[in-house]
Structure formats: structure tokens, C-alpha cells
């Protein structure tokens, strides 16, 4: 796999800080001196208390937002605007309400200059994989929450991005569908040798999928600790949960995370 | 009825009612609704016209100024059958419609294009919107003679007036429509690989569509007004001329007849526009399609 | 009652043909008579009559022919003070068409008029028919007045046209047009139309006049005095009394135009004997309203008040 | 607890069918001959494959939508319009973007005629419980996904509804915050003797919280089976997961559900 | 710049830069942006006026018809210092403003109220929107004399004209704004216990706000136009009178001076409106407030 040996990492966040002005006029620091490196072909999971700054981090990587200080680098170059190699599954789906399901999924390939026939074939294929073949012509408002999320995933996956960012992509899905999605994701990752950053609240999911798990501190987010998950690949997500090593990983990370979540919750509860 | 989030009260069905029965009931209820609407529309029209006729018959209002429905209908009939002093009614109507339609299309296209252009480029909009607003405040009646001086008495000057009536309304809405486009959707499109132009075409324009249509609904009337104002100031034919002659000869019936004609044409245009809009907006949640 | 405000609408009080209105105010004659007169301006002549009939105003300064026209529609208004005995208009002919030397040469040409159904329209057609042209030989094009008239002539959309000051002076000065028929003086009007043509006047609703004789008398007094003033003073002296905005930039031109047109005003506000007949002749030939109607001309004007005022 | 003995149940869905017209003109049946009864003071969890019709069911109970056939009854009376006794946490939050956090939460009490001071006091209290005291004056767009969800929960809880409907309320929260929310929910339920219908994809959550778990079939949803969870109350959600009885419940229901999810996925994948 | 989802290019800072430094840089960049905008606005103004002045000096265009900036400024100065023939300039301006402002406020309030009323009640809107559209197509220039006949020559008729110019534009937008209100939000409000009126007040009105403001931005210009058209048909004072006299006396400078005056007033009103709008819309995501 030659791409894995590429000298520069896929994603680098170097001493990144991101501030917002809060309505009371004070600045709110969402990220402070944040450092993270994702090698090419690596699968990184990010966990942390709610509101700590995970989505903010992904936004910086996409180029949708800029750091207040520090630097973000993609494939060795600085981020300037939106990079065509990046795919991003938003936390809150952003489907186009005026396009039906298949047109939504076809949007990416069409934007990227694929022919209509190709795009349609690919879209049908991906919609079959996410289990929505029967809903090609429904409009987003006619779908359930989980179905919309799956359309959004197909929309992202169809572009087969080199760098794949996902913000809690599977939280609206039932366990079984989630398993199917896990497998599709791992397949895509392996085939494309993509680099993945995967934000989730489900620790088991994080350990089952990732090479590295980043645990973030309560906001302003910094990296608290990084765990290398050395479970053998290929992993069968539905079975791995009975593996003792897996359970140990989960326990360790859970302990680590719990402290942060507690800090976060305590801190947030104190009256401003 | 007052709550748009609620669905219209539907008949309640016993369990086991078949789909066809339920659908038939839904269709019936839609049809009944349409009938009620039509009934009231006609009732209001009849009452209004009736009041007008009676008060002018009884001289509560002076028919010299306000004519009466029967006089207006007479006049319309006469015009339709015998033509006006300035040639056939249809020819005059055609002239005005031509001016108004060209002005309407060019004006709304320009309004949409400039609105979207400035809406997408904050620097340009900051610089130019002041000028656009200033120009919008020039009375069109003052512009009319200037346009005629520059463009002559022909089609061009009337089209320009219709254009300028339409442009600003459409521009204002297209501009704001662009500003209101959902940021997440734009971000999504860009990440999916859309170029600037593709973002405009696939996200900005569809989401500004309801804004643009809202302005088009008033604009068609404005386009006709523009054409008529132009014809007032100088023209050989057209509905504006008919109105102006009618005014000059104290012919109230003629004036109202011309106005009625304009109204009818506007409503037809409006109807066509609504059809187009509904076609374009077929992705929107529509309650009446639900089977209850 | 005398303290009540009398509102008079003027069809453009900056126009020289309606000059007596503003002049009377400037000279303070209304105040001298002890009446409170408010002059309102109105750009397009025809609306004024409607306002008069609707009671929004008590008097209108406008063309006398409306009195005839409205009688045909069953409305009675009468000229109380007759300002002018000539229309004050001029048929201009474009310099691009030197071949046009008389009305007869206008066959097949486009004639500019202020509006279809307006006095300029009827007068043009009347003169054309007097020159032996038949209906359809000339085409009336409504071009309004002022800039649009000039533009239409420059663009050769009209070869000749009837208009008033200050357009006349302007076009003659630039050499873009010359005078074909001058309806600003009594003599040339007689020559062109076969009689005087009473135009600018103060007219009021007959019923209102009958009910407000003292006020009307005072108005008549003021206007007759004004007309006398015009008759006894030079154009320059009159211009001095007018608001400066009326002759912006070109006072000389204004004075010259006034000199040329001053002769159209009556000396005493009395309706010239042969005037109404000419008007009726013109209207009954071309106005759809008047054609074939029985008009009692004596009801379209009164000289009672102006005669008293002398 | 006298209210528990109230003769009529809190919610009854009797032979309810709900159809939609799909874009291709065919009717899509989301619910068919659906029957469900929630007694007063009962806590019911609903699980089922994504897109089966869970949200549709809740919509029918609120009165936001009407059944195509069958009947919905609340507290013994037919549903006609929106009932003031119902509280509903939407699957997709529907905060008012022009109101800041505290104004959003105060909306309910103010609508219901509470004084401004009272509403503010209550809102502050609830925001402290969901851990957002420091964000009173933020606008929704300045919050993270999890924070928005918590505002929405405070907005619903503050009305202390007699009938509480919740559509995947905690899926965007990290485990710790979720635990806190579970406890708040159980407290509110116990204090108000409220009747709760709780839709979730997290089976453990369902079993830990509910008296009864409804398992729905793949759409068109009908009730596949109902499980009475007879774990003792009060339950401490964070500890119950090590209870053998709990684990057994989860296993049984999981098996039951898995079949449905598989059917659903298989059926949906078949090209329409 | 072309992509509104992207944030403006910001300076890049070394790690460790303090917050104050970063904020100062942000402020600087905002200020620089304002300066660029102002520069271009002035540049365009100067170029346009310069071209106008030069072409009229060199007689490319006839200053008799089109005046020239210097003549217009002279006239404005003269009016301001010596007053117009019809009394002080400010008095005339005040009259027109009074008419326009009353018409603007009543027209936009009526537009909003009727728009929201019909927007929330589909039956009423189905019945009445036909009539509203028909009335909208009547040329205002035709309405002017009718209004004056009915309401007399005073303030009322001009206000009515300004009203009718404003009403339809605001109505169309308020109506569509109501229709576009998010259904989930309405549902949420109702479930939280809102009455119909509370839903209107707390959900419908705020979400239609940007629609309403979009129409208000064009409407103020329209209100002035309405007032001026009314003054054309008959009035003693007002900017419309000044324009009408200037037209009648071939006083191009005077006509343009009056128009310039109207423009300035409109821009001031526009500025105030934007301030109000920004205040009301302070909840919206605003990029320039971010510290970079
Ligand atoms: N536009 C904004 N203005 C002000 N503050 C913001 C803005 N966007 C995010 N924040 C703040 O930044 C912090 C981090 O938000 P972020 O969305 O990155 O959290 P998160 O880790 O994704 O949380 P979750 O798990 O709930 O999605 C939060 O405290 C939030 O209030
Ligand atoms: N407005 C609508 N028009 C047509 N079909 C609809 C509409 N709303 C929902 N549906 C269909 O009804 C079915 C059930 O939807 P519902 O939202 O109730 O699912 P759900 O069980 O809540 O799923 P999830 O767990 O993904 O939220 C879906 O197949 C969906 O496509
Ligand atoms: Mg997030
Ligand atoms: Mg759902």
C-alpha cells in the first residue's frame, strides 16, 4: 500500500485554537492548543464530553471554519478552502430538500463531473447498501430520521473520499443497521486506504472501528490521551464485543473519559 | 383551520375502511373545499358589483365619475365587437401585453441575476446596494418622459419602464433569498465537490425560489403598470392610450373597462405563474395529498 | 362665508397660457378683494375637471372647450373669466422637412399632439381639414409636451406638432423647428380657424356660481384687474412679478416668449363674440362626445361678472 | 397514587392505520392496525427498526397528525387537536433560533400563563439540571448538537407534562450526560406520575427505564411483542446494567428485535 | 469572497498570540473592509458624476435636458438658502415626507397584518388573494385622481396612494413568509402550550421577519413615489410639485435636484431601517463577530 508510506500525514492540527464570541461579549474558547495527527490510511475515533469541541475540530479540517490561531494541514499542505479530497458526514444532516433521495446521492458525482448514467448507477448501488432502494424517489421530508441519516451517509460515501470525516454518523440508527453501516465503512476505508476521523459517543463503536482513539478534555478541548487500539484486522464488529482485549480497552478509555465528562458537567452546571 | 401545522379536520373512518374509500373521501373533501372557495369568490364579486350597480342607478355615487358595471360591460362588448377608436381592442391589448411581458421577463431575469450575484458577493453588495436603493426611489412617472426622450416613442421606452418597475421588487427578494439559503446545505454542497456556479445552481437558486416567486406575483401587475404609464406619456396604441383617451373625454365607463381588461389579463398571468410555481415546488410537504 | 377658502386648480401654473392665475396671486389682487384663494397645481389638464365636478375644488383654470365638452355629457360648467382668445399654441414643423410650407403639405405625415382627445388634437385635425385634407391623411401621435415632444421631433417620429411655450421658444431657438401656424395671436388664429378661439379661462360649476355670486364677483374683479395689468405692462415687467423658478436660467427667453404670446389675452376677461362658435365648430367635427349633440353655448360661459368688474 | 387507578388508560391507539402518498403515487402504509395502550403512570419504551413508524406513532398521539383509520384516545377522550397535557421531545430538535437558551426554555411556562419571574426561575433550575447554566444567553446556532438536544429536553420537561412522549431524546449525548438525563427523567416521571412513551434504539436504555417494552415490526409497523420489565424500582440506571435479570431481558428482546430489523433491512434493500 | 459559507480570509497567527492581539487584528480587518467599500462607493459616485459633468460640459448630452451635477448642486444650494418659489425647501420636503411616512407605516402595517392573517388561514387566502392580485394591477396613476376625488386634495389622498404602493409588496412577502415558517417549530410551540395568537407572535412573526424586511427595503422608495404621484395630480406644496413645475419650465436642474433630494432621504430612511433590522436579527449567525 504505497499511499500509507506517504511522508506527510493526512491531517495535522498544530497548536490549533478556535474562539467564538459568546452573546455576552466574552470570548468562548472551543479548542485550545489542540494537536492531532492522522496518518494516511489511519482510522481515528474521537470521543469527548458533549459540547467539548469535536464538531468544531472537524469543521476546521474541512476548511469550513478557520482556526483563530495555529495551523491545519491536509496531506502536507495548508488548508485553504474546501478540499475535494475530503468527505464530511455532518452531525445534523444537510440533505437538499428539493431533491429526492437518488438525486441527493447523485449530487456528489455530478458535481465532480461524472456522467449522469454513471452517477445514477453508483447512487443506486450505494442506496442499496444503506438499505433504501425502495425509497429512491422520496423527498427528504418523507423519510424518517434514520433514513435521512442513511441518505446522508450514501451521499458522503459515494464520493469515496481520501479523507473521511464523520460526526456521530450512526447515532440515529438501530443496532442492526448500525452494524451494516460499520461494515460498509470499514470496507470503504480498506478499499480506498482512506484516512478517517470518526466522532462518536459510543465508546464500543470507537474501539471496534479505530486504530487510535483520541479522548478530549471538557471544553476548551485539548487532547487528553490517545489510545492505540491494537486489535487484529479485519475486525468483525458484531463479534468483537465479546473479545476480552476489546473489553479491556473499553474499560480503560471509559475510566479516562468519565473523569472528563464529569468535569465538563460540573463546570457547565456552575452558574455563569 | 387557523393552525397550519394541523391537518384539516378529516372524516373519521371505522377500522377496515378500504384505501379506495378513504381516497375517494379525501378527493370529495378537496372538491367540496374548492366549491366553497369558488362560492365565496363569486358571492363577493356579485355583491360588490351589485352594490356598485345599485348605487350608481340610485345616484348614490355619480355614474359620471364611477360609471356602473352595466356601462362597463356595454363598453367592453362594444370594444370587442366594433373595435375602439384606435383600432381593434385585441390589437391594443396585444401591444400593451407585449410591452409588459418583455419588461416582466427581462426585469425579473435581471432582478434574479443581479440579486443572486450581489447576494453571493458581500463586497459587491455592500458597494452597490446603496445605488440600487437610491435608484429605486426615483418616481417612475418622472422616468417615463426621460426614457421616451432617450428611447423614443416605440416599444423600447415602455419595456424599459415595465422593466424598472419589476426589477427592484424581484431584486430585493432574490437578494434576500440568497442570504437566507441554509449555510449547512451550502457547506454540504461544497464538500460534495460543487463549484461556485454549481452551488448557485443547485442550492442557492432552489432555496431562493419561493422568495423569487413571491416577488413575481406582485411584479406582473407592476409590469403592466409600467407599460401603461409609458403609454400615458406618449404612444400610439395600447391600453394606456385607451385609458388616457377615456380620461380626456370624461368617459368613466371606458376607463373602468380598460382597467377591468388589465385585471383579467393579470389574473390569467397569475394563474399561469401559480401553475409553474406549483410544478417547481412539488418537493414541498403538501397536506392535501395525504390520504386521510 | 366670504372668509371661506376658494380652491382653484390650475393645469400647470408655470405655463404662460395660464399666467394670470399666478400673477393675480403675486400682485396680491385676491387679498385686495378680501378672498382667500388657494391655487393648486396639476400636471395633466383633464383631472382638474373631475376634481371640480367632484367638489374638491371650486374653480379650474383651463381650456374653455371643456365647458362645451362637459355639457354634451350633461354637466354644466361655465367660463367665468375668459383669459385668452387664442389657444396660445403653435404648430411647429420640423427643420428636417423644409418641404412642408403649409398644412396642406402635411398629407401622410405624423402630427404630434399632447394627447388623443385633447384640444391640440382637435385643433390640428380641424386645421388639416380646413386645408383640404381628409380624415386619415394625417396621423395624430400623442407625445405629451416638453422634452418628449422635442425628442419625438428630433427622432423624426413626428414631422409637425402642436405645442405651447416654453417648447416653442426652445425649438425655434435651436433651429430644430419653425412655426407653421401661430395660434398665439388673435389675428393668426382668426386666419387659421376662422374666428377667435377662446382657450385659457377660469371656469366653475354653474350651480356653484349661482350659489356664490359675491365670491365669484370678487374673483372676477381680481382676474380682470390682472388682465388689465398684463395689457398695460411690458413682458419684462410681468416677468418680474412671476416666481423666478418659472424662468430658470433663461429669463430673456421667457420674456421674449411672453412678448410673442401676450396678445392672446383678453383685455377685460369678456368672452369674444365669435369665440364659442369656433370652439363648437372644432369640437362637433372631431369630438365623439360633442358630435351630433345639441349644445347651448350660452350656458357655457357668463360675462355677468366680468362686465360688473369693469 | 390515586391517579394510577384512573379507569381509562393515558393513551390508547385502537386499530390505527396511517398512510402516506409516496411520490410515485402509491400509498405507503406506515402503521397498520396498530394497537397500543399506555396506562396512567406507566413508562413505555418503543423499539423497532429505523423507518418502521415510531415517530409516526408519536405524532398521532400528540394530535399533530391524524390516523387514516382507527382511533387515538388520550385519558379516555378522543384526540382533537393538540392536548395541553402532552409534552413531546422531537426527534429533530425544533428550538426557536431567535430565542436564546433561557428564552427557549421559558417559552412553555409563558405560553401557559406563568409569570415571567416564575418562568425564569423554573428555566434556570432546569437548565442547571441539564448542565447548561453557563449557556443561558447563547443562541441555538452557537451550541453543539448535544447541547441543543439538552435545551430541547429542558423545554419539554419544564412543562411537567402528564403524558410525556420522547423520540430518541438521548442519542446525541455522551454516556455520562445520558445517565444524568435518565435520572432526571425518572425523577420527573415519579414525581408527576406521568405516563411516558420513550422511543429509542438503545435496547439497554429501554429496558433500564421502562415498565413495558414494545417491539415493533418492520414497517408497516404493528406491535410484534410487548415485554413487561419487572425490575424493582427505584432503579439506578448506571448500576442496573450488571444485573443478571437485566441482561436476560436485553438478550430476549434483542433476539426478537433482530429478526425484525433484518426483515426490514432485507425488504428495504430489494429494488422497488 | 464568492462563497458565503466560507469565512473571510483571516490573518494567520502564530500559536501563542494573545486574545487581545487577535481581536485587534479582527477589528482592523473589519475596518479595512469598510474602508474598501467606502472607497469604491465614492469612486463610483465620483466617476458617474464626473462623466455626467464632462459629457454635459462637452455637450455630448444636452444639458438642457439632462442638466449637470454642478447645476444640480447650485439649484439645491439655492433652494436650501433662498427657498423655492413654493416656500422653503424644508417645508416642501416635510410635506412629502409626512405623506410618505404615514403611507409607509400604515401600508406596511396593513400589509403585514393582512399578509399574516391570510397566510395563516388558507380558506380566507384562497378566497381573497384573487381580489388582492386584481387590485394590485390597477395603475396607480389612474387611482390617483380617483383617490383625490374621494378624499379631497389634502394629506389623505397622498397617504392613500403611498399606502397602496406599499401595501401589496409588503403583503406579498408577509404572506409568503408565513407560509415558509418552519412546521416543526410551529408544532413545537403548540405542544409547549401556545395559543394561536402566541404561535403567530412567537413563531410566525419572527420567522417572517426577514421576508417582511426584504419588502420594506423597497417599500420606502415606493411610498415616496406614491406621495409624489399624488402631488402631481394636485397639490400646493411638496417635492412632487417642485418636480412638476421644473418639468413644465424645462428646468432639468430643478427636476434632478428634487430627485436627488428624494434619493438622499430614501437612503437615510434605508439606513435607519437597516439598523432596526440588524437589532431584530441579532440572533442570526454573524461571521464578522467571530474572532479570528
Ligand atoms: N458559532 C458559535 N458561536 C459560539 N459558540 C459556539 C459556536 N459554535 C460552537 N460553539 C461552542 O463551541 C463549543 C464546542 O462545540 P462543538 O459543536 O464543537 O461541540 P461537540 O464536541 O461537537 O459537541 P456534541 O457532542 O454535543 O456535538 C460549545 O461550547 C459551543 O457552545
Ligand atoms: N410525510 C411523509 N410522506 C410520506 N412518507 C412518510 C412521511 N413521513 C413518514 N413517512 C414514511 O413513514 C415511515 C415511518 O416513518 P417514521 O418517521 O415514523 O419512522 P421511525 O420509526 O421514526 O424511524 P427512525 O427510527 O428512523 O426515526 C417511513 O417509511 C417514512 O418513509
Ligand atoms: Mg458535535
Ligand atoms: Mg423517528
UniProtKB/TrEMBL annotation, chains A, D:
Domain ABC transporter: 11-243
Sample GO molecular function, one term: ATP binding
Keywords of this entry: ATP-binding, Nucleotide-binding, Transport
Record has ATP-binding as a keyword: yes
Superkingdom to which the source organism belongs: Bacteria
Record keyword Oxidoreductase present: no
SMART domains: AAA
PROSITE patterns per the UniProt record, alphabetical: ABC_TRANSPORTER_1, ABC_TRANSPORTER_2
InterPro entries, per database record: AAA+_ATPase, ABC_transporter-like_ATP-bd, ABC_transporter-like_CS, ABC_transporter_ATP-bind, P-loop_NTPase
Record family assignment: Belongs to the ABC transporter superfamily.
Protein name as annotated: NitT/TauT family transport system ATP-binding protein
Species per Swiss-Prot/TrEMBL record: Neorhizobium alkalisoli
Automatic annotation (TrEMBL), chains B, E:
Annotated GO biological process: transmembrane transport
Transmembrane region(s): 36-54, 100-118, 130-153, 159-178, 211-233, 253-276
Topological type in the membrane: Multi-pass membrane protein
Subcellular localization: Cell membrane
PROSITE patterns with a match to the protein in the record: ABC_TM1 (PS50928)
Sequence ranges assigned to domain ABC transmembrane type-1 in this UniProt record: 93-273
Keywords, ordered alphabetically: Cell membrane, Membrane, Transmembrane, Transmembrane helix, Transport
One Gene Ontology cellular component annotation held by this UniProt entry: plasma membrane
Domain of life, per lineage: Bacteria
Pfam families with a match to the protein in the record: BPD_transp_1
Family of this protein: Belongs to the binding-protein-dependent transport system permease family.
PANTHER family, sorted: ABC TRANSPORTER PERMEASE PROTEIN HI_0355-RELATED, ALKANE SULFONATE ABC TRANSPORTER-RELATED, MEMBRANE SUBUNIT
The name this protein goes by in its record: NitT/TauT family transport system permease protein
Organism: Neorhizobium alkalisoli
Amino acid at each position: 500500500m504505497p499511499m500509507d508510506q506517504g511522508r506527510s500525514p493526512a491531517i495535522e492540527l498544530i497548536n490549533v485554537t478556535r474562539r467564538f464570541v459568546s452573546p455576552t461579549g466574552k470570548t468562548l474558547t472551543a479548542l485550545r492548543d489542540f494537536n492531532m495527527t492522522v496518518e494516511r490510511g489511519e482510522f481515528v475515533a474521537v470521543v469527548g464530553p458533549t459540547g467539548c469541541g469535536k464538531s468544531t475540530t472537524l469543521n476546521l479540517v474541512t476548511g469550513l471554519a478557520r482556526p483563530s490561531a495555529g495551523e491545519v494541514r491536509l496531506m502536507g499542505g495548508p488548508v485553504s478552502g474546501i478540499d475535494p479530497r475530503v468527505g464530511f458526514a455532518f452531525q445534523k444532516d444537510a440533505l437538499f430538500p428539493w431533491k429526492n433521495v437518488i438525486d441527493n446521492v447523485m449530487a456528489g458525482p455530478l458535481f465532480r463531473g461524472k456522467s449522469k448514467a454513471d452517477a445514477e448507477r453508483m447512487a443506486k448501488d450505494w442506496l442499496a447498501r444503506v438499505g433504501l432502494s425502495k425509497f429512491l424517489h422520496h423527498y427528504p421530508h418523507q423519510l424518517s430520521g434514520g433514513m435521512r441519516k442513511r441518505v446522508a451517509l450514501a451521499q458522503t460515501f459515494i464520493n469515496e473520499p481520501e479523507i473521511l470525516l464523520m460526526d456521530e454518523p450512526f447515532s440515529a440508527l438501530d443496532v442492526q443497521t448500525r452494524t451494516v453501516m460499520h461494515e460498509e465503512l470499514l470496507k470503504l476505508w480498506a478499499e480506498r486506504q482512506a484516512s478517517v476521523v470518526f466522532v462518536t459517543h459510543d465508546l464500543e463503536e470507537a474501539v471496534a472501528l479505530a486504530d487510535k482513539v483520541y479522548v478530549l478534555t471538557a471544553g476548551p478541548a485539548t487532547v487528553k490521551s490517545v489510545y492505540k487500539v491494537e486489535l487484529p484486522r479485519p475486525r468483525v464488529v458484531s463479534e468483537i464485543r465479546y473479545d476480552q482485549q476489546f473489553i479491556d480497552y473499553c474499560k480503560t478509555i471509559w475510566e479516562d473519559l468519565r473523569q472528563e465528562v464529569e468535569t465538563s458537567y460540573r463546570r457547565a452546571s456552575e452558574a455563569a | 383551520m387557523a393552525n397550519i401545522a394541523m391537518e384539516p379536520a378529516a372524516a373519521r373512518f371505522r377500522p377496515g375502511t378500504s384505501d379506495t374509500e378513504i381516497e375517494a373521501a379525501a378527493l370529495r373533501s378537496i372538491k367540496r373545499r374548492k366549491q366553497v372557495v369558488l362560492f365565496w369568490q363569486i358571492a363577493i364579486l356579485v355583491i360588490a358589483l351589485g352594490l356598485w350597480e345599485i348605487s350608481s342607478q340610485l345616484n348614490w355615487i355619480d355614474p359620471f365619475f364611477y360609471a356602473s358595471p352595466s356601462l362597463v360591460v356595454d363598453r367592453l362588448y362594444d370594444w370587442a365587437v366594433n373595435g375602439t377608436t384606435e383600432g381593434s381592442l385585441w390589437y391594443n391589448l396585444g401591444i400593451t401585453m407585449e410591452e409588459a411581458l418583455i419588461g416582466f421577463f427581462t426585469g425579473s431575469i435581471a432582478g434574479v441575476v443581479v440579486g443572486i450575484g450581489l447576494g453571493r458577493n458581500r463586497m459587491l453588495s455592500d458597494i452597490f446596494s446603496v445605488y440600487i436603493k437610491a435608484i429605486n426611489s426615483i418616481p417612475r412617472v418622472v422616468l417615463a418622459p426621460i426614457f421616451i426622450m432617450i428611447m423614443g416613442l416605440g416599444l423600447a421606452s415602455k419595456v424599459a419602464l415595465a422593466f424598472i418597475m419589476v426589477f427592484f421588487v424581484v431584486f430585493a427578494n432574490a437578494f434576500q433569498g440568497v442570504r437566507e439559503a441554509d449555510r449547512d446545505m451550502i457547506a454540504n454542497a461544497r464538500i460534495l465537490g460543487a463549484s461556485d456556479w454549481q452551488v448557485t445552481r443547485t442550492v442557492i437558486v432552489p432555496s431562493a425560489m419561493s422568495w423569487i416567486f413571491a416577488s413575481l406575483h406582485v411584479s406582473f401587475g407592476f409590469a403592466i403598470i409600467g407599460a401603461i404609464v409609458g403609454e400615458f406619456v406618449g404612444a400610439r396604441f395600447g391600453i394606456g392610450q385607451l385609458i388616457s383617451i377615456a380620461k380626456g373625454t370624461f368617459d368613466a365607463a371606458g376607463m373602468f373597462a380598460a382597467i377591468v381588461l388589465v385585471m383579467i389579463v393579470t389574473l390569467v398571468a397569475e394563474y399561469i405563474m401559480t401553475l409553474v410555481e406549483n410544478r417547481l415546488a412539488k418537493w414541498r410537504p403538501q397536506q392535501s395529498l395525504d390520504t386521510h | 362665508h366670504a372668509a371661506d377658502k376658494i380652491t382653484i386648480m390650475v393645469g400647470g401654473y408655470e405655463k404662460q397660457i395660464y399666467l394670470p392665475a399666478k400673477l393675480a396671486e403675486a400682485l396680491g389682487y385676491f387679498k385686495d378683494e378680501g378672498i382667500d384663494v388657494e391655487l393648486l397645481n396639476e400636471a395633466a389638464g383633464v383631472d382638474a375637471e373631475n376634481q371640480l365636478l367632484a367638489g374638491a375644488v371650486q374653480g379650474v383654470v383651463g381650456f374653455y372647450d371643456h365647458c362645451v365638452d362637459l355639457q354634451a355629457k350633461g354637466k354644466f360648467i361655465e367660463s367665468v373669466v375668459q383669459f385668452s382668445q387664442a389657444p396660445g399654441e403653435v404648430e411647429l414643423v420640423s427643420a428636417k422637412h423644409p418641404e412642408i410650407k403649409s398644412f396642406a403639405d402635411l398629407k401622410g405625415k405624423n402630427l404630434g399632439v399632447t394627447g388623443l382627445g385633447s384640444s391640440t388634437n382637435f385643433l390640428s385635425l380641424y386645421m388639416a381639414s380646413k386645408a383640404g385634407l381628409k380624415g386619415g391623411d394625417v396621423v395624430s401621435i400623442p407625445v405629451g409636451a416638453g422634452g418628449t415632444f422635442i425628442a419625438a421631433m428630433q427622432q423624426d417620429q413626428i414631422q409637425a406638432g402642436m405645442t405651447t411655450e416654453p417648447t416653442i421658444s426652445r425649438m425655434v431657438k435651436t433651429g430644430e423647428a419653425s412655426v407653421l401656424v401661430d395660434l398665439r395671436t388673435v389675428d393668426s388664429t382668426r386666419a387659421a380657424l376662422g374666428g377667435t378661439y377662446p382657450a385659457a379661462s377660469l371656469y366653475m360649476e354653474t350651480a356653484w356660481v349661482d350659489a356664490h355670486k359675491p365670491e365669484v364677483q370678487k374673483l372676477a374683479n381680481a382676474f380682470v384687474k390682472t388682465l388689465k395689468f398684463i395689457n398695460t405692462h411690458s413682458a419684462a415687467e410681468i416677468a418680474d412679478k412671476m416666481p423666478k423658478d418659472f424662468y430658470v436660467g433663461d429669463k430673456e427667453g421667457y420674456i421674449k416668449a411672453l412678448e410673442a404670446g401676450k396678445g392672446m389675452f383678453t383685455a377685460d376677461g369678456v368672452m369674444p363674440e365669435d369665440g364659442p362658435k369656433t370652439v363648437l365648430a372644432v369640437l362637433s367635427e372631431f369630438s365623439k362626445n360633442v358630435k351630433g349633440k345639441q349644445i347651448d353655448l350660452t350656458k357655457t360661459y357668463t360675462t355677468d361678472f366680468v362686465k360688473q368688474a369693469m
